[in-house]
Structure formats: C-alpha cells, structure tokens
Amino acid sequence: MSLAALLVLADGRFPAGGHAHSGGAEAACKAGRIHDAATLEDFCRGRLHTTGLTAAALAAAAALGLDPADLDTAADARTPSPALRTAARRLGRQLLRAARATWPSPELDALAAAFPRGAHQPVVLGVTARAAGLGPLDAAHVAAYESVSGPATATVRLLGLDPFEASGVLARLAPALDDVCAEAAAAALLARSEGLGALPAASSPLLDISAQAHADWPVRLFAS
After folding, report:
1. For 109, phi and psi rounded to 5 degrees?
2. CA geometry: angle at 110 spanning 104 and 112, to 5°?
3. What is the C-alpha to C-alpha distance for residues 19 and 22, in angstroms, rounded to an integer?
4. What is the pTM of this model?
5. Under a CB-based contact definition with an 8 Å cutoff, are residues 158 and 25 in contact?
6. How far apart are the C-alpha atoms of 120 and 107, rounded to whole Å?
7. What is the mean pLDDT of the chain?
8. Buried residues in 155-166 as b, exposed as e (16+ CB within 10 A)
9. Measured in Å, how far apart are the chain's first and last C-alpha atoms?
C-alpha cells in the first residue's frame, strides 16, 4: 500500500470531476434541509450510512479484483434514480481519464474499452485504486470520504458556510467514516466468496427524489 498514492487519489484537486457535483446538497439547501453546520452534519451522516456505504463497498470489491462489469450491474441496481445513474457514469468517465493518465494499467484500459460511455464511479474508483497499488479498505475510504466531502464543500459555496465549520463537520464524522469503511471492506471480502448479493444496498429515497427534481432545474450551480 502506498500512502502517497492514497493521498493523490483522495485529493480534491485530483481532476476527477467531483467539484462539479454537490452530492444532493444543492437540492437539500434549496429545500431548507441544510441551512447551517448542524444540518449539514445530519445530511452528511445520513449520506455516509446509505450512499456512502454502498459506494465504499462497490469500490472495495473492485479493488479486490471482482468483475467490473458485474459490479457495474450491481451499482445500477442500487441506483434507482436515472439522474444519479447518469451522474455516476459521467463521474466514472472523468475519473477513468484521470486515472489512465496517472496510473496506466491494462485493467484501466480494459475498463475504458468495455464502458466507452462510463462505468459507475465507485467501480472505476476501485479499479483505479488497484492500479495504484491500493487495497480494498483504501478504496472504501476514498469512496466514503467523497460521499461527505463533496456535499460539505458544495455547501460552503451554496450557503457561504464558514469553511472552518465545514471542516469541523468532516472531522466529527471521521469515526463513523472509519466504521463504514470497515463494514464496506468486510462486505467486499464476503462478496468474493458468496456473490454480489453480499454487498450493501442501503438506500436514501429522498436523495433519489431530490436528484430527479434537481435534474429538471433550468438554472443550477452543480451538475447533481
């Protein structure tokens, strides 16, 4: 495991396209569900234990070497919102471009050939982690962290929230994030022997509903 590679992959400046997506925060801010640091923390905690857990497990499974095509199908089944499926594939395509330039590998090339329009981002993330010499728990940490850091950063822009408060939210979530990542990595190991049904399928219906409404807004700051 390369700590430096992990830092590069988790860095918000890595050109993977995440800065253009709010992870549902834009719709939540407009609806008044996020209006300060406390409500941002509630939102991120809920997202971590649903979308974050699911994404972390998919990424961990891909980092273990499970079939990316099967994992992409599993990701589709766990993403009922068409808008979120589109966003996940767009993010996957952008991440794959950055990954192939940073850690060239036959596995990344094969993934690009199999999914010219983009695979789900957590699947691409797991294959990227594998190419970078990282393990399933590392991939889970990056996926889970992205699930909360994206909304936190977006809220700073959407509400003018103090960046120090947003960072405090992420720091307070750190113990829960570690627990979610451990659960995700354990599920990925189980899926290797028992099938993809062992992967979490935690859902957040309000995120799906909000994503569909957000996709129809004529004016928006973030792509999702």
Report:
1. -65, -40
2. 80
3. 8
4. 0.95
5. yes
6. 15
7. 95
8. bbbbbebeeebb
9. 32
